[in-house]
């Protein structure tokens, strides 16, 4: 999954951070592209967490 995201970002000549959380809001994947600042990596994690309810997933 992260590889696909990075490949798509590369088509726009961009480096990205990728975060994936599980249904329990636990981070299961967090990667940072070359030159991407730590604040963007934290923002990716927060965005993944925030997206859970929109995806129809509820936490226990």
UniProtKB/TrEMBL annotation:
Name of the protein in question: Heme-binding protein
Family annotation (Pfam families): HbpS-like
Organism of origin: Hymenobacter rubripertinctus
SUPFAM superfamilies for this protein: GlcG-like
InterPro entries on file: PduO/GlcC-like, PduO/GlcC-like_sf
Gene3D superfamilies reported for this sequence: Haem-degrading domain
């Amino acid at each position: 999954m992260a590889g696909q995201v990075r490949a798509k970002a590369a088509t726009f000549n961009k480096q990205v951070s990728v975060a994936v959380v599980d249904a329990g809001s636990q981070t299961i994947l967090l990667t940072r592209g070359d030159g991407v600042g730590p604040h963007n990596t934290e923002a990716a994690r927060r965005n993944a967490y925030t997206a859970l309810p929109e995806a129809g997933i509820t936490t226990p």
